[in-house]
Amino acid sequence: MKYQFSNCGKLLEICKKNKLPISQVAIRREMELFGKSKPLVRNKMKEVRNAMWHAIQKGIKTTTKSKYGLVGTSAGKVYAGVKKSGSMLHSKVAIRAMAYALATTEQNARMGRIVAFPTAGGSGVVPGVLFSTFEHMKSSKRKMLNALFTASAIGIAVLEHDGTISAAKAGCQAEVGVGTAMAAAGVTEMREGTPEQCVNAAALALKNMLGLACDPLGGLVEVPCVKRNAIGASIALAASDMSMLGVESFVPMDEVVEAMMNISATMNESIRETALGGLAITPTGFRVREKMGLPPVPKEYLKKTPTKKCGNCKGCN
Ligand code: SF4
Questions:
Q1: Which residue, judged by its Cα, is nearest atom 2 of ligand 1?
Q2: Could you say which of 104, 112, 152, 288 has the lowest number of CB atoms within 10 Å?
Q3: How far apart are CA 215 and CA 270, in angstroms?
């Protein structure tokens, strides 16, 4: 098998040997692995692209809150910032990327149709970054599609390198974190970065998501998930800019993935999608639990939580 890769290092070797960008290796891998024709592979990705765009369009226009009222009103507010970009600190492309990421994940919270790319919780970063940059660059549809293939190749390489996209296993670093790395690589190829620059952008992005807890309030994929995707979009753009400007990640991408998995092995279950740690057990998190009728958080998860009144006497240990 000529186009199969087991990590990002191998992916780059195939790109170099065949003088191909990452997107084209990803397409050939799919054709080779599943015996599909190129038009079939591309058409399937077109369906993904269209579904992403529909979710964005719907999410931008909708202000209905999610069932428990935690999220649903941010996308439109941030999108309005695109018109005020002169008074914003971020560029127009970054503000729009954040708005699109919010639109997608708010749709997810409303149980609307989205593409879990790589997961539902982390579904906003890739479409946010790619569609915003596509508009900014007035890019071709072909380039947009290729960027999605490049993003997908990074996700595949993470999984093939014994990484994960499961928050239950590795926390949010594996969901929004990996999504951010995928977006960084995809947008870098859209900007005509080399395969090395794409993978380097992914490494820069993922490094800065390492250790990220999965700590959703009430166990709902809403807070902090929705806004975390928007910030992920901003990080992906920063990583792409740095990579295009020649800044290299000192630690290569495959090692960053290994670091993510090492961190996951030390992560307490309370911050791995159980809603028993981090933001989920703040006073606000408790209020959400109560509103949802969930049982109180067991004591063993609370004893290490410092409060304002805590004198650190260790009496509670
Ligand atoms: S906090 Fe957890 S549920 Fe929310 S996006 Fe991150 S991994 Fe998914």
A1: 214
A2: 112
A3: 8
**Tens-place pLDDT, residues 45-94:** 999 999 999 999 999 999 999 988 999 999 999 999 999 978 999 999 99
What distance in Å separates the CA atoms of residue 240 and residue 261, rounded to the nearest whole number?
23
The ligand 1 atom at the shortest distance from the C-alpha of residue 213 is 1
- Whether the CB of 41 sits within 6 Å of ligand 1: no
Q: Could you give the maximum distance between any two Cα atoms of the chain, in Å? A: 67
Task: Say if residue 317's pLDDT is above 50.
Answer: no
Residue with the two structure tokens 């997107």 = 23
Answer yes or no: is the C-beta of 222 below 6 A from any ligand 1 atom. Answer: no
CB 186 near ligand 1, within 6 Å: no
Class of domain 8-271: mainly alpha
Q: What is the pLDDT of residue 312?
A: 63
**Distance from the alpha carbon of residue 4 to the mean position of ligand 1, in angstroms:** 30
- Mean pLDDT score of the chain: 96
**What residues does each domain of the chain span?**
8-271
Q: How far is the CA of 172 from the centre of ligand 1 (A)?
A: 5
pTM for the predicted model, two decimal places: 0.95
The predicted structure's pLDDT at residue 313: 63
